């Protein structure tokens, strides 16, 4: 490591896949140029090989965990969770259970406990020589990420989760929690021209906020399945897993293939059910959140079954008002077509908007918006629309929206749609949000972005 002031924090990063590692290697190089040390906790064998080849200090956590597994009995697992102050393991394992379809509780428990012991052993060695470390991770709900969080908590190390912000090219840094950033009630007095320009450009361009790392998700299922690069990547991952026996944290390859085949079938079954906006009016808009995203599984788990929520809403809407729903553009076909079709037969006030429809066009036409914690809720608020927020969202405490504490309060709230919000209040709120974000975008290897991310990490670490 570099010779430097011992008070300068060492940044610990986690990486779960090769595409992440390629990015973090460049960031580590930039940090080194600025005389900051970085250590990487890796959960992917290929990533470890890449970092070893360029001299990045890293630790292969799954490999270390495998040496521990045989020492853990089923009876000891509960004690390990107590040791790391985890009292609701079913909740913390729910994201991985749902995404990877792992229904064996013991298998999940064993992975969680062995990962924590392995990470704890690594940090105990790291902390012998360092007394100022900070953990930084992409926000996520996987066991690898959560195990790192709980070990950091036990050792009084600050953990910052990096989450794409509402603004393109900016990040939230969330300290020691998975919950959405808290934006306080005190709004900024001065609104920057930068923020005004951003809002006006976004509205004029009708552009939704899509991080570059997620753009490939915004293709339809058939495009993803027919993509040659995806096929090559699948073959490489299968060879790595089954021939070369390399560990991949995201190695449930057939689960992903099966999901996209199912999405293709669902999309085909719903093709005749999509309507234009004119055919939906007048309507209250409910944008489907990406199914099994951690914003639902861990931030707002009570709304995991979004179709059950839709079933409730269509039954409590005022007469003459429709509920219009639209699938998440990154996961068209992920909603169960059989259940949705059955509901369309049952309720004539339920409408399904074509998923290719621009979200700003939908928001402009909507009487109001009901959001769990989707960015669509913030986009609606930016347009001055009435927004009802059900879940844990960064904008839930905003004066621009109505927070719904309980579903039983929703009928009365919908019956009293407020008037349009003033532009000055909108700008003041989003200026407040802007000031809690930092410049940079994850997994974009542009040299300017790498420099921005390195500077952002240093700024966060020095808080």
List descriptors.
463 residues; alpha/beta; 7-stranded mixed β-sheet; 7-stranded parallel β-sheet; 48% helix
Q: What does this molecule look like?
A:
There is one protein chain. The chain is of the alpha/beta class. The protein is 48% helix and 13% strand. The chain is built from 20 helices and 14 strands. The chain has a seven-stranded mixed sheet with strand order 3-2-1-4-5-6-14, with helices on both faces. α1 runs parallel beside α2 and α5 crosses α6. The radius of gyration is 23 Å and the shape is globular. The mean pLDDT is 91.
Write a compact overview of the structure shown.
The protein has 463 residues and is an alpha/beta fold.
What is the topological layout?
Layout: E1 10-15, H1 18-33, E2 38-42, H2 45-54, E3 58-60, H3 61-69, H4 74-83, H5 89-100, H6 105-129, E4 133-138, H7 143-154, E5 159-164, E6 170-175, H8 193-205, H9 221-226, H10 228-243, H11 253-270, E7 274-275, H12 277-280, E8 283-287, H13 294-297, H14 306-316, E9 322-326, H15 337-346, E10 350-353, H16 359-365, E11 368-371, H17 375-382, E12 387-389, E13 402-403, H18 410-414, H19 423-434, E14 437-439, H20 447-461
Parallel strand pairs: 1-2, 1-4, 2-3, 4-5, 7-10, 8-9, 8-11, 9-10, 11-12, 12-13
Antiparallel strand pairs: 5-6, 6-14
Note poorly predicted spans. none
Q: Helix fraction?
A: 40-55%
Q: Helix- and strand-based class?
A: alpha/beta
Radius of gyration: 23 Å
Task: Give a short account of the largest sheet.
Answer: 7 strands, mixed
Strand order of the largest sheet: 3-2-1-4-5-6-14
**Total strand segments:** 14
Distance between the termini: 22 Å
So what's the overall shape?
A: globular
């Amino acid at each position: 490591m570099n010779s430097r002031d011992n008070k300068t924090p060492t940044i610990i990063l986690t990486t779960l896949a090769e595409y992440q590692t390629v990015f973090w290697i460049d960031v580590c190089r930039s940090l080194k140029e600025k005389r900051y040390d970085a250590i990487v906790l890796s959960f992917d064998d290929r990533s470890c090989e890449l970092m070893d080849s360029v001299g990045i200090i890293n630790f292969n956590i799954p490999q270390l965990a495998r040496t521990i597994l045989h020492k853990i009995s089923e009876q000891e697992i509960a004690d390990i969770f107590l040791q790391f102050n985890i009292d609701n393991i079913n909740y913390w394992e729910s994201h991985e259970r749902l995404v990877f379809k792992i229904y064996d509780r013991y298998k999940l428990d064993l992975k969680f406990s062995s990962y924590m012991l392995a990470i704890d052993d690594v940090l105990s060695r790291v902390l012998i020589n360092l007394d100022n470390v900070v953990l930084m991770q992409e926000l996520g709900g996987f066991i690898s990420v959560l195990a790192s969080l709980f070990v950091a908590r036990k050792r009084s190390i600050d953990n910052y989760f990096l989450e794409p912000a509402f603004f393109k090219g900016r990040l939230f840094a969330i300290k020691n929690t998975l919950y959405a950033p808290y934006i306080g009630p005190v709004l900024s007095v001065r609104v920057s021209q930068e923020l005004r320009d951003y809002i006006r450009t976004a509205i004029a361009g009708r552009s939704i906020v899509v991080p570059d790392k997620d753009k490939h998700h915004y293709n339809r299922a058939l495009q993803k399945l027919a993509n040659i690069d995806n096929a090559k990547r699948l073959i490489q991952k299968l060879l790595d897993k089954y021939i070369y026996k390399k560990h991949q944290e995201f190695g449930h390859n057939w689960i992903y293939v099966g999901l996209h085949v199912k999405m293709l079938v669902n999309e085909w079954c719903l093709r005749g059910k999509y309507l234009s906006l004119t055919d939906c009016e007048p309507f209250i808009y409910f944008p489907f959140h990406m199914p099994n995203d951690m914003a639902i599984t861990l931030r707002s788990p009570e709304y995991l079954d979004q179709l059950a929520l839709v079933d409730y809403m269509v039954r409590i809407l005022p007469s003459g008002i429709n509920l219009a729903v639209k699938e998440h553009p990154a996961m068209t076909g992920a909603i169960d077509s059989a259940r949705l079709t059955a509901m369309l037969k049952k309720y004539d006030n339920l409408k399904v908007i074509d998923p290719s429809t621009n979200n700003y066009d939908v928001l402009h036409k909507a009487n109001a918006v009901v959001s769990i914690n989707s960015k669509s809720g913030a986009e609606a608020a930016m347009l001055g629309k009435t927004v009802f927020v059900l879940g844990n969202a960064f904008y839930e405490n905003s004066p621009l929206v109505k927070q719904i504490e309980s579903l039983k309060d929703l009928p009365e709230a919908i019956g009293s749609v407020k008037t349009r919000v003033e532009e000055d209040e909108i700008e003041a709120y989003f200026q407040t949000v802007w000031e809690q974000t930092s410049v940079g975008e994850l997994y974009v290897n542009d040299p300017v972005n790498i420099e921005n991310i390195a500077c952002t990490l240093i700024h966060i670490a020095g808080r």
